């Protein structure tokens, strides 16, 4: 009951903020209704007063919010300010579409995650994990923008090969391409997190004993998956919500009438009843997904969660292949060289005579649709995109650790249910568009997955026997937290945060493209992608350059993490007891 009360309280608070959006953004809702319904009528005071009386806006925002909330128990979601029609049928239809697409995307994500960790499961079950895996392929796939994958899949599998329809919604074939575009990055992220946790499970005494007693490798792998699942189930719940409401770009590209696109269109049109209904459904879905993940995690942990009998997962000290460190250095040097070369050029100079020119000596990476040098815009965009993304990533890491340790589950699930674009619209409406507003908007929601990961690991670490021993020996809360709990929580969450830096960079750039971040024509990698997507077939270099930069950023983050992890402390796979952790 306490769990549901906290989440419903957070839900009502967010819906109330959405209801007060006109006052926060200092806009007149009557003007929105006038422009939508009566575009030819002048906005005279008498006309606006008549609209306010007709729609109930004359009572103020609190009256409008209360009137909307009073209809919820009866299933009445209000009437659209734009169309004048009931909101319920359109929004519930969009929810059904999004849930169907989410189910297909989730199936793709789970299958890909299992495929990515198949090698680790096979080697770990046979006691053959001898080096740290970098997981570069998964990182690159997770760093690719969904709308870029969607465009590539549509071009190759639909236009060129004719295997699947490119647009529309209604039959199973039309769900394949959007499900792949959304499921591949999500599956890559889940697979990378699972691959990061599995070596610690295989290093535990039960795994060694099972191998010594001749247990089949398949059963050992299944037990390892179950051992690591409780810490990752909250991430799966967050992915479910993200695939439902955060698929705005994919829904738009494939003309899918889903909930994310409906919410964005309503926010842009200031159609508050529709926007409130969409946010309400997304938050309710977040509560349901969080409750399901919480219940499944408790079932998997069993009595060990409260009995102090759950050993901590400690990553083994596996050496890193020398090639990983070399690849990280080479990739970092390449990115730095491209950035420096771009900084020496003018990113704003446009020459119509060389529009969409291919790579040449004068323009090593070609030109874009306005005749601007792609190398110059890539280099100047690195300073804006990467530095801001790293700064926001550090902030979200700190917020995630604090919120996860504080067990702020209600706030975490609520923040995750809000698409970053929608949060950007709200923040930009309050503080105005600009780079700081975009950074704040992304930070408002990007900490949620890290908090969920922290909370799950925190629960497992607190259930470890050595923490119970430390408590019995008189160790205070701060000592137990610093010496016994945080060493098992912080490293995996930091690696998780590193994986999300490219996604943060893309979210920042996407908000800039919508006019909510750094204003045009300043270069940003996401804006470069969006501006040149219509010319992808004629000038693929204009799209491939920023896409490759984002993929390289993701690969560099993972390579660096793997190299550092290989030098870190942990346990050897042949040891019987974990090291590098206090025991009271």
Q: What do you see in this structure?
A:
With 584 residues, this protein is mainly α. 70% of the residues lie in helices and 0% in strands. It has 27 helices and no strands. The longest helix is centred in the C-terminal third of the chain and has 32 residues, at 374-405. It starts with a helix and ends in a 17-residue tail after the last helix.
**What's the number of helices?**
27
Helical residue percent band: over 70%
Largest sheet: none
Distance between the termini: 35 Å
* Residue-averaged pLDDT: 76
Low-confidence stretches: 568-584
Q: Strand share of the residues?
A: under 5%
The total beta strand count reads 0
Radius of gyration, whole Å: 25 Å
Structural class: mainly alpha
Shape: globular
Order of helices and strands: HHHHHHHHHHHHHHHHHHHHHHHHHHH
Identify the notable features of this structure and list them briefly.
584 residues; mainly alpha; 27 helices; globular; disordered C terminus
SSE inventory with pairings:
Layout: H1 2-19, H2 21-25, H3 29-37, H4 45-55, H5 61-70, H6 87-116, H7 118-125, H8 136-143, H9 146-160, H10 176-202, H11 205-212, H12 217-245, H13 248-253, H14 259-268, H15 272-301, H16 304-307, H17 322-343, H18 374-405, H19 409-417, H20 420-431, H21 435-446, H22 448-462, H23 465-472, H24 477-499, H25 501-513, H26 525-532, H27 540-567
Helix pairs in contact: 1-15, 1-19, 3-4, 6-10, 6-12, 6-15, 7-10, 7-12, 8-10, 8-27, 9-10, 10-12, 12-15, 12-22, 14-15, 14-20, 15-19, 17-18, 17-27, 18-21, 18-22, 18-24, 18-25, 18-27, 19-22, 20-21, 21-25, 22-24, 23-24, 25-26, 25-27, 26-27
């Amino acid at each position: 009951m306490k769990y549901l009360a906290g989440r419903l309280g957070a839900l009502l608070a967010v819906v109330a903020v959405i209801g007060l959006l006109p006052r926060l953004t200092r806009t007149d809702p009557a003007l929105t209704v006038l422009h939508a319904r009566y575009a030819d009528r002048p906005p005279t005071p008498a006309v606006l007063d008549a609209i306010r009386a007709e729609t109930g806006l004359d009572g103020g925002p609190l009256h409008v919010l209360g009137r909307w909330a009073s209809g919820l128990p009866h299933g009445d979601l209000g009437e659209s300010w734009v169309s004048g029609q009931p909101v319920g049928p359109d929004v519930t239809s969009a929810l059904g579409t999004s849930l169907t697409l989410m189910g297909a995307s989730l199936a793709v994500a789970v299958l890909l995650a299992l495929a990515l960790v198949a090698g680790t499961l096979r080697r770990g079950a046979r006691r053959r994990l001898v080096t740290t895996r970098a997981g570069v392929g998964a990182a690159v796939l997770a760093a690719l923008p969904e709308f870029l994958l969607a465009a590539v899949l549509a071009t190759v599998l639909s236009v060129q090969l004719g295997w699947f329809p490119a647009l529309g919604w209604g039959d199973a074939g039309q769900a394949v391409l959007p499900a792949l575009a959304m499921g591949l990055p999500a599956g890559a992220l889940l697979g990378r997190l699972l691959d990061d946790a599995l070596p610690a499970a295989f290093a535990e005494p039960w795994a060694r004993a099972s191998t010594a007693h001749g247990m089949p490798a398949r059963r050992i792998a299944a037990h390892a998956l179950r051992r690591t699942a409780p810490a990752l189930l909250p991430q799966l719940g967050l992915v479910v919500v993200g695939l439902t409401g955060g698929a705005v770009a994919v829904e738009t590209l494939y003309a899918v009438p889903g909930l994310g696109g409906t919410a964005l269109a309503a926010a842009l049109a200031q159609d508050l009843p529709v926007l409130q209904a969409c946010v309400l459904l997304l938050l309710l879905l977040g509560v349901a997904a969080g409750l399901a993940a919480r219940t499944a995690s408790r079932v998997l942990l069993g009595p060990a969660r409260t009995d102090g009998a759950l050993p901590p997962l400690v990553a083994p000290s596996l050496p890193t292949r020398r090639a990983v460190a070399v690849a990280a250095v080479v990739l970092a040097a390449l990115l730095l060289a491209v950035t420096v070369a771009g900084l020496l050029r003018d990113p704003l100079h446009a020459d119509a005579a060389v529009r969409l020119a291919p790579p040449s000596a004068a323009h090593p990476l070609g030109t874009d649709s306005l005749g601007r040098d792609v190398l110059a815009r890539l280099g100047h965009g690195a300073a804006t995109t990467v530095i801001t993304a790293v700064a926001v990533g550090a902030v979200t890491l700190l917020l995630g650790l604090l919120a996860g340790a504080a067990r702020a589950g209600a706030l975490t699930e609520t923040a995750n249910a809000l698409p970053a674009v929608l949060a950007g619209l709200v923040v930009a409406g309050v503080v105005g568009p600009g780079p700081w507003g975009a950074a704040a908007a992304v930070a408002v929601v990007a900490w949620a997955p890290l908090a969920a990961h922290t909370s799950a690991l925190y629960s497992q670490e607190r259930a470890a026997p050595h923490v119970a021993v430390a408590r019995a020996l008189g160790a205070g809360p701060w000592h137990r937290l610093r010496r016994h709990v945080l060493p098992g929580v912080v490293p995996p969450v930091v690696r998780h945060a590193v994986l999300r830096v490219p996604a943060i960079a893309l979210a920042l750039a996407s908000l800039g493209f919508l006019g909510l971040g750094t204003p045009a024509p300043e270069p940003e990698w996401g804006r470069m992608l969006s501006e040149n997507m219509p010319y992808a077939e004629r000038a693929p270099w204009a799209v491939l350059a920023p896409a490759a930069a984002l993929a390289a950023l993701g690969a560099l983050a993972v390579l660096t993490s793997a190299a550092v992890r290989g030098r870190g402390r942990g346990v050897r796979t042949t040891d019987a007891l974990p090291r590098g952790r206090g025991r009271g």
